[in-house]
């Protein structure tokens, strides 16, 4: 529900032919986050990856870099994933880095898309959206839909809550529903439990 992510999603649908999306890179950092369980924050990157790729995870390998001198359970978290549609992904979560960022880079055949999501009181507060094709920059802008209004709007919190309550008021199904959200929670729990491997269960 972050306006910049919605614009990126629309751009991908408009510019990328079916089957030509190749790889997603997620860079998700915080500063001074020494809480032992970072999974409830990392789920935002895990879920956003599914949204942008337009597919569920097929398989994930988890790697951990423990930082015991910073506290019990503190670690950098790395996910190497393959989605059901064949797109690969690398998700990096570093909770004790030097800056606060949520950045997404997607590579398609002949194209690259990059988004820096607005975060409070950070260098990325204005947001950024870029599109490259065959070595040429077609779009390089601080996204006006991201900088308009309050930060809770740019982050998507307002849109998320408004969509939920409007659906309830109208008696319509909530989107995404619990079944659509379930896999993101499953992956988060694997991260919380320090699993090393996830494979989507077949029904």
Brief sketch in words of this structure:
This protein has 203 residues and is an alpha+beta fold. The protein is built from six helices and nine strands, in the order αβαβββββββααααβ.
The total strand number stands at 9
In what range is the share of β-strand residues? Answer: 25-35%
Q: Which residue ranges are poorly predicted, with pLDDT under 50 across at least 5 consecutive positions?
A: none
Helix/strand/pairing class, anyone? alpha+beta
In angstroms, what is the radius of gyration? 17 Å
Strand arrangement across the biggest beta sheet = 8-7-6-5-1-4-3-2-9
Distance between the termini: 30 Å
Mean pLDDT over the full residue set: 94
Tally of alpha and pi helices = 6
Biggest sheet overview: 9 strands, mixed
Helical residue percent band: 25-40%
Order of helices and strands: HEHEEEEEEEHHHHE
Categorize the overall geometry: globular
Overview of the molecule:
The mean pLDDT is about 95. Helix 2 crosses helix 6. With about 200 residues, the chain is of the alpha+beta class. It has a 9-stranded mixed beta sheet, covered by helices on one side. Helix content is about 30%, strand content about 30%. It is built from 6 helices and 9 strands; from the N terminus they run H-E-H-E-E-E-E-E-E-E-H-H-H-H-E. The protein has helices at about 5-15, 40-55, 145, 150-155, 155-170, 180-190; strands at about 20-30, 55-65, 75-85, 90-95, 100-110, 110-115, 130-135, 135-140, 195-200.
